[in-house]
Amino acid sequence: MEYILEMKNITKEFPGVKALDKVDFEVKDGEILGLVGENGAGKSTLIKIIGGIHIPSKGEIYVGGKKVVFNSPNDAFSKGISIVHQELNLCPNLTVAENVFLGMENLGEGRNNFLKTVDMKKLEEAAQNLLNRIGAQFSPNTLVRELSTAQQQMVEICKALARNPKMILMDEPTSSLSIEEVERLMKIIKELKKQGISIVFVSHRIEEVVGICDRVIILRDGKRVGTLEKDEIEENKIIKYMVGRDVELFPKHVERKKGELILEVKNLKWQKMVKDVSFKLHRGEILGFAGLVGAGRSETMQLIFGINKLENGEMFYKGHPYNPESPYDAIKNGIALIPEDRKLQGLILQMSVKDNIVIPSLRRIAKSGFVLDEIKEREIAKEFVNKLQVRTPSIYHIANNLSGGNQQKVVLAKWLVSKSDVLIFDEPTRGIDVASKAEIHKLMEELAAQGYGVIMISSELPEILNLSDRIIVMFEGKVMVELDNSKRNITQEEIMYYASGKKQLVNP
Fold it and tell me: Are 248-333+454-502 and 335-420 in the same CATH fold?
């Protein structure tokens, strides 16, 4: 069979690391091909080789049966290959049309032929055609900074389409999208397939891979370890290939005894994002928050953590009035936030694992309250690295060089060291691989069993349904419903019904 793209014996070596080891990779015409693997498996390196960003140490690449050499992204573009990167690569102060055709502007003639100008009308018409092609509902004149993350993702797809590609590589395209936005993206991908474009779909979300892909290639430790055809694609098979063993993604549920009331919030209000929100949290439970992007979940937690200032309502922590002026007040009281963006908000990336773990507790650890105690810091960091099984060469290893799952464990470790009683997880497993997800899920269950009060915001419904004892569903800043999930009997359909703003479920 002739493939649109075929790669043979691709090896890529970096100093001290063999990222890819004799990998074969092929893409059929008009298929949606899943590419999966844990962090460090070699997916990103392979994508960058296809896109001309990296040059392989060994191996051959064929496009349409002809041998090619990609020395730059332009070489890949010229062969009909485009990439939608995980990290959006847009200019926020330019319009949609300007971003889509950046570097490809069709210049018209200026006065006396000395000046050349961009024909903005033609540019905007061409951009509008691309927006129509994927069903986008915003104007090509809109500044990119005014768009939501999902809309910016659409702009990235239009950028790829502007080059008339035969194949589009999508690297973690759903990592920052809500459930509703993911569904919309899946429709776009299926429509692109109908238009004859091959899609390489890279994702940590195995349920998405199962739902949309015609074939799946699995990498592990830089090698291709498995291929599944359409009728063979199953979540458990993919995970076993990825990890090399059976992995229980969600720990077996053991019903926990609900402890004392530790946090109560009443009628919270903040701007237009939080409207009359009330709920209770007990020790020994995981309270899940579901909803679409913009529902007000993160903003509610930012009020509790003191990032935003409460406009109306009241909070009680351990039975006493609680109104934090800043995150410092929240930390001092024993409330911790493991944020959605761990790299930007949870870690100091250029500092060591040790320093990140002890930094919120330095006053307590320091001798006489102000002299740093290096020995004690080292002992505490080692204790929690072992306790949470953080995979790091040493406690002095730079946090930026850890995998996503291990970075998340370091963020959690620093709050456990600070003796927090309430742990707020905002998207706890975003951007981490399956094995790390399973470890984080297990840790959350163990923390609840130890008597912590755990709040979890997640856009992944399987996570909400399998871990939460109670589920609060929000819509446009309001609590739509609180559901008892102690028997793990709530369905995705129920959650989505309330998350879309409906108030009463008929025949649940």
Answer: yes
- Whole-number Å distance between alpha carbons of 270 and 466: 30
Give residue-wise pLDDT tens across range 203-216.
888 889 999 999 99
In three-state secondary structure terms, 355 is: helix
- Per-residue pLDDT band for 503 (boundaries 50, 70, 90) equals low
Task: Return d(Cα 467, Cα 465) in angstroms, integer.
Answer: 6
H-state helical runs in 346-423: 353-358, 362-365, 374-387, 404-417
- Specify the pTM: 0.74
**Using CA atoms, how far apart are residues 29 and 5, in angstroms rounded to an integer?**
8
How far apart, in whole angstroms, are the C-alpha atoms of residue 85 and residue 79?
Answer: 18
Query: Cα–Cα distance between 107 and 111 in angstroms, integer?
Result: 13
Q: In one letter, which amino acid is 87?
A: E
**Residues sharing a CB contact under 8 Å with residue 241, sequence separation 6 or more, in sequence order:** 218, 220, 225, 226, 228
- What are φ and ψ of residue 67, in 5° steps? -70, 135
Task: Report d(CA 193, CA 168) in Å as an integer.
Answer: 10
The CATH class of 335-420 is alpha beta
d(CA 187, CA 222): 31
> Residue 81 pLDDT more than 50?
yes
Nearest CA to 84 among 50, 115, 108? 50
| Greatest Cα pair distance in the chain | 82
Total residue count of the chain as it appears in this document: 508
pLDDT tens, position by position, 239-295: 889 888 777 888 887 788 889 999 999 999 999 899 999 999 999 999 999 998 778
Fold type of domain 248-333+454-502: Rossmann fold (3.40.50)
* Domain 5-243 CATH class label: alpha beta
**Virtual torsion, Cα 289, 291, 295, 298, nearest 10 deg:** 40
Q: Retrieve residue 111's tokens.
A: 């006065």
Strands 422-426 and 335-338: parallel
List Cβ neighbours of 33 (8 Å cut-off, separation of 6 or more): 27, 198, 199, 200, 201, 213, 214, 215, 216, 217
Tokens for 439, please give them. Answer: 């470890």
The gap from C-alpha 131 to its chain's centroid, in whole angstroms, comes to 25
Helix 434-449 × helix 235-243 angle, to 10°: 100
Q: What are the structural domain ranges in the chain?
A: 5-243, 248-333+454-502, 335-420
